[in-house]
What does this fold into?
Amino acid sequence: MAEISIIMPVYNVEKYLTECLDSLLAQTFTDWEAICVNDGSKDSSLSILQQYAERDCRIRILDQDNSGAAASRNNGMKLATGKYWIFLDSDDRFLPGLLSHLYGNIKKTSAQISACAYSVFDTNSGKKVLTYQYSGNVTGQTMPFSAKASDLAIMDFHYAPWVYLYDADYIRSLDLQFQNIPRNNDIFFTISALWAADRVTVSNAVLLEYRVGMTTNLQSGRCKTPLTFLEAYDAIYKRFEEYGLLPLHQQRFAEYVLESGLARLKRCQGKAPLETIYFAYREKAIPAYVPKDSLAVITKAELKRFYQTVMETDTPDDFLIRESIAKPYYKEKIRLRSY
It folds into this structure.
């Protein structure tokens, strides 16, 4: 039995898998098992995994028909023997101290979740384009802290599961699974785990390098399945109700829904996806998750404006024209008529 189980979906990543596995073998913390779930890869990913498994018995392979990242993680959890779990992606790179740092913090503080920071690099240029670290609102907490008892916003945390080391018994106690949807399947899992936790510890040590710039994975097709986030929101809302956390988190969740919608409309490319997201927010997301009385206590003026603009306009064109007065990126969408 390993101390840490690393659960890693693998799908058509032959270009990056060797680099990823080498960064895993370079970890200074050595008491781990890696459950690599080959999700029906059509390239040489399985062969690469087999070569590494022959070299290192800590690498275990589950070969399955293509079922998606969520099913891969869920199936990986069934095989995991570790006291702690982390969900890593097979096209990213891990700094040597990743596991050691997260494990040291979770043991030192008896936390249920231990988090770190990460950087983003572009696979085409090889350059770092962003570093994500937690604000003073988070790092200023006395570690470990209770997310559900704090006044932190949901947006203060990243929803991807790969920056967190989880106590396996804690995840089992919540009976958490990843949602089996094409995109955003990790939102429900991560937010549910964080906001039910009594003990979370966070560090701004940058210990993971997240790869962007690919054209064949899910992150490259954000607007092909533009409404999966609503399934995640529904599940989170019901989970908060089920665990009696809605009174604590309803305001935070309303802010999260608005922040998420604003970001999605900013970055979405293509007229059809933008229209889909606009009407989804106008007709479902805002009425369902953002009570009118919540606006009074939302502190961000941009979120209040977004709420009002969506609810007071009738079409995406009206929304863009009204927003373009203050937002140059919307003005450019209108000029090009390329949204």
Summary: Residues 216-223, 329-339 have pLDDT under 50 and may be disordered. Strands lie at 4-10, 32-39, 59-64, 84-87, 93-94, 113-122, 128-132, 164-167, 200-212. The longest helix spans residues 246-267. DSSP finds 13 helices and nine strands in the chain.
